[in-house]
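Hi there,

I know you've been waiting on this one. I reran it after we fixed the sequence typo, so this is the corrected version. Both the input and the resulting structure follow.
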Amino acid sequence: NTQAFAKTLLGNEAAALGLYEESLGILQDRAARHPGNLGVKRALGHTLQYIGEVYVDQSDFDKAKSYYGQSLDIIKDLAETNIGWQRDLQEGHNKIGEAAYKAKDYDAAIAAYTEALAINTRLLKQDPGNIDLVLDKSPIEMNLDQARTDQKVEQAMEIIRQRSADSSK
């Protein structure tokens, strides 16, 4: 994953995908052989998320959402066993929101960002001094506000298009 991340930074997404897929295969094999190893499952969830990020960068939002969804399924299970991994769950919802937003699926983006914010709020109540959670909150709120704003702009533009079409008849 480290090599794949470096390839991503260098703009070599094809090589990064190959390395992430190789890592994914290794982790899937380990998870199958050691189903109780939560660290391997967590690494598997993160690797799926990293692959999703590459697909977002390539504007292949359907593939990105698929990988993010697989990651979120794993992270949900892990978050039930370890409150420290609840932040991973928050990030998983945020990533799904980012992919949906870039695909202009504002309803899905708003739903995902809202869920990420709800998790963040709950975690901050349990640990109000956690600086990571405090720093996570503002970007999630900004993403949610942006998605809501863009959704309203899109709705307004649709009304204008409809009125324009009606007036030209």
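Quick highlight: The chain has a mean pLDDT of 92.

Best,
R. S.
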